[in-house]
Request: fold
Amino acid sequence: MKKFLLIAPGLLALTLAACSQETGNVAVEETDNLLTDDWQEVSEASAGQEVNMYMWGGNDNINRYLDEWVAPRLKRDHDVELNRVPMNDSQDIINQLIDEKSAGKIEGSMDIIWINGENFKAAKDNELLWGDFTGQLPNFNEYIDQEAPEIATDFGEPVEGLEAPWGKAQFVFVHDKSKSETPPKSMDELAQWVRDNPGQFTYPALPDFTGSAFIRHVLYETTGGYEQYQRPAAEIDDLEARLEPMWQYLNDIEPYLWREGETYPESLAKQDQLFASGEIGITMSYDPALAASEVLKGRFPESTRTFVLDGGTLANTHFLSIPFNSSAKAGAMVAINEMLSPEAQIAKLSPENWGDLSALDLDKLAPEQQQAMNEVDLGEATLPLDELEEHRLPELSADYIEIIEKGWMEHVAKD
Amino acid sequence: MKKPRRLLNSILFLLLFIVIGLPFVPLVLSSVSFGWQWPNVLPESFSFRVWEYVLAGSSGTWSAVGVSLLIAFIVTAVNILLAVPAANALVRYSLRGKWLIEAIVFAPIIIPPFVAVMGIHLTFLRLGLTETIFGVVLAHISPTLPYMVRAIMISYNTLSVDWENQARMLGAGPISRFAHVVLPHLLPGIAAGASLSVLISLSQYLITFIIGSGQVVTLPILLFPFISGGDPAVASAYSLLYAGIAIMALVGMDIALKKYYQNKKIATGKG
Reply:
């Protein structure tokens, strides 16, 4: 009896493993064809498939855009069922895929994942992504500038067709026009503004994504531009010394920050709450249209405006990818292709839906599509697209970000 | 003599009501506010945008409520089946190393359950149990079972074996001894354990998330992205909904229990 108890689960596991192995091999062969087939065949294979899209689920506008704009159109035009799965953190997607890979799960339920930056690098390093699929997508080939650095690389990591650009983001500062008429347009001006308005400025404590991005602007402006950091951090011998002016700057403004810099908001959400309730005068966002959509929701005051630095602000691209073990790869390709269509991108640009910048190259669109794109009412709080475009700075690669986040703890948070 | 006591009672009731009810007021206000600037105590205007989103068909709220309750009640039923014999053995038999068994049964109260779940995830993956309600139910048992065992043990402690012996002398078999002597005595303990079990199961995020892998969507799965870094208004609305469901589940169980006792009274009264 005892022996049987031990053997039974073992046998069960073996049978299950054997079953999945068998079906798995067929699945792998079939889906690899999708990378070379005609689009027509991909499209036929996708009919009737159910596609699970795993993405951060903390914004009702974005959720609604997918559930009420994208999903019904996919169902109607392509017979593909899009099922949005809400996640708390994209990091969780990667962890789950790593577990699935080590357990040998070949038919997973994630079909589309929404990632960029560190998560993309982790996924690529662990070989969690399916393959070079973007070249198969008609809308990718037709409307996207594939040579552009923000499309070909993701935080310094070559994309290699593993993910398709879905939208762009750019860092902006957010202020209330009724309280401060002329916002600071450089880090020097900001330091002056902070001294003139004690307690009115702060930034989210690192490793918050947006707080970390704010500090990268300080780095660029206090240490002489971004160009010097466009190579691996390990190649710069005197990096420690080069970062010194940045820590100096942050420690200089610290006594004039919210709560005298004794503490920092733990997340951007907390900082936005401080801004929404009028406790601080400036917040920041890596989404240039977020302020406009918060005004629409009544959370930020009507007089909210955004601004960029004269020296430019960081910009990045966010991507859609297909995991190695997706069970509906054809459906995922069709869904991603649809989300890159001019119609979907124009709808996404409207702050009522989401307000996310388009990933498409404006010059490649038909005149009437260009016009539609320009006519989208971004809201008074959002800067015009060309003003954003003129003030773009490239991101730093992940190795710098790690060094800066550790350094902030040591140099700024500890004192 | 009677009057001051009534006064005292109503003051106590009022205090309790304030302590329990007051935290809900900001939640309600935040969920319907449109523009709420410091230093205003109340929002300037109101909007039902958030409730519209939460209750609309496309947000999947109602199916999440259904899945949450289904899991909570299956977990509780399984817990009762496991805990009654376990409590019986732990209270009535003196075995060697009993403390060790007790320690293992109660360990999940002290050890954070997700520590174990991280390891269970890989095994469940290999067995194909992830992404299923069955797998999530199994995973929920670990943090809930100790409370159920604890509650039923207390009931067993006050139940003398003499009662069962008496029934046996009067000719009752094991099944009717359990049904007519043991079970009625255990019921309050079972009810207390069941309430805890339902509440704890309803509130699981991490375990559901890891084992369910996004395919088993309960209310906390929808709620968490909004709490940590999303929209506080939506989070408020979901929190209120969550509290409402939890209270309804508890009140529902309470009513069912009272009804049972009432029927019992009538039955024994007649008999």
